[in-house]
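Researcher: I'm preparing a figure for a lab meeting and need a structural model of a single chain. I don't have an experimental structure, so a prediction will have to do for now. The sequence is pasted below. Please return the structure as C-alpha cells so I can convert it later.
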Amino acid sequence: MTETKTGAQLFVEALEAEGVRHVFGVPGEENLDFLEALRTSSIRLVVTRHEQAAGFMAATVGRLTGRAGVALSTLGPGATNLVTAAAYANLGAMPMMMITGQKPIKTSKQGHFQIVDVVGMMRPLTKSTRSLMSAGAIPARVREGLRLAEEERPGAVHLELAEDIARETAHGAPIPRTEGRRPIADEHMLARAIDRIQAAKRPLLMIGAGANRKATAPMLRAFAERTGIPFFSTQMGKGVLDETEPGWIGTAAHSAGDFVHRAVDASDLVIVVGHDVVEKPPFLMGDGRRSIIHVDFSSAEIDPVYYPELEVVGDIANTAWRLAEGITPQRHWDFAPTHDLRDGLLRHLARNEGDPRFPIHPARLVAEVRRAMPDSGIVCLDNGMYKLWFARHYRCRAPNTLLLDNALATMGAGLPSAIAAKLLHPEKRVLAVCGDGGFLMGGQDLETAVRLGLDLTVVIVRDDGYGMIRQKQADMGLPEYGMQLGNPDFVMLAQAFGATGHRPTSPEEFAATLAASAKGGVHVIDLPIDYSANVDLLGDLT
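Model: Understood. Here is the structure written out cell by cell.
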C-alpha cells in the first residue's frame, strides 16, 4: 500500500512526476503547507514581486516548452492578481496551471475574510477550474489538469488547494502521463488538398499561431523546401520558418495594402496552416479570387471573413509531412509576382535601418537589436507601438525567438517573459523590449531578475506616453488627450534595484551598449524613440 502523505506533498510529487522544474509565485498564509512540500522537492520556487508576473512567467514556460508552467498564489487578492495572466495564457494558447490557496472548506471558523469565488472567477478565463475536495483525489486532478492545459488548443487551468485539504492525509501516488498520439488527417481529404495545390497557378503558404509548436516547424520546413511555395506568417507564427529564406514574403503585421496583402491578392490559393481566431486572417473571403485550404488540429471556426473550401484536420506536423511527400512542384506555378513583391518589401524594410536620427527611428532600433542577437537568442516584447515594427522588420531564423503577444496584447508581460526564458535557457542571450508604460506595469520584478543572478538586458523604449493609443487617437483625427506620462530616471531606478542602467545618446552608442550588456548581469537601457516615423510603417508602402 502507498505511503500516507499530506495533500500538499501529493500535489508536489505529482508536479515532480510531470517534470515541472519551476513554480512561480508569491507566498501567503494559505499556501504555507504547499511551500513546505516544495522546500524538500526537486522543484525550484521562484518568488516574484507580483502574482501577475508569476503567471506571465508560467505561461512563457508553457509557450517555450509545450509543457504547462506553474504559478502559485494565495487566496483573495493573490488569486485575483492572476486573472490577467490567466487570460494571457488562455487566449495565447500557452499551457499553464495556476494553484491558488483558500481557507479551510470543511470546517471554517474565519468568516469571509479575503474569500472570493475564485473558481467561478476563473471559469471564463480557463479550460478547467475546480476546487480540490479531498487529498486522495489530488494526483488524478493534477494529471487531468495538466493534460487539459497541454492538449490542443493549449491554455490555462486552475486548481484551488484549501488549507485543510493541503494538510489532510491520504494514500496516493502520482498518476503516469498518458501515452498517445493526435489523430491524423483523412487520406481522402489530404489527396484532394494535394490535387488543389498542384492545380493552382500561384499557391501561397500562411503560417498561423497554431502552427507554432515544437514538432511542427521541421515538417513545415520540409514542405516549404520541397515545394518552393512562398510563405508568410501572422505575428504569432513568426519564426516557424526561417525568415531569411528566399520564399519568405513578410509578416502580416499591417493593414490592407502592405506587401503581404498584395501577395495574397495575387494568389489563387492560400494554404492556411494553424490559423488561430485570436489573429484575424490577412485577407477577406467572398471575392471569389482564391481558394483556401485549412490545415489545423481542428476544424475551422467559420465567420464572414474565413470559411475555407477544404479542411485537412489532424496533427499539423503529420499533415505537413504527408503534403511534402505527395506534392510534385509544377512547371505552371508562377511565383514571379510574389518574388517581385518580396524584393519591394526588402527594399522598404532596409530604407531606414541606418537612420542616424536620435531619438532613434523604430526601424533602426529593430536593426540594432537584430544585429546584436544571435539566431538562437530570444527577444521578449511587451506591448506597444514598437511591437508592430518588430513584427514586420525583425526576421526570425528559429521558432520562439521573438515572443510577442498578439492575442490578449497585454502590457507588463515583457520583463517576466524574459526572466522565464532566461531561466529555461541560461545558455541563450535573452533581451526584453518594453515601452515606458508597459515596463512600469511590471518593473518591480527587475528585483527578481537581479536576485536570481540572471544575465538579462531590458530595453525601455521611451516616448513618455501611451504611444500605440496616441497613434490610434491621431489616426481618428482626435486631439491628443490623456496620453502623457511622467517617468522616473530609469538609470537610477535600475541602480536602485541592483542592475546597471544606461542612457545612450545616439544609435551608435545604443549598439555599443547592447554589445557590452551581453557580458553579464542585469542591464536596463533607457532609449528614447521617435514615433513620428510611424508614417513609414502605416503610410505609403510603395
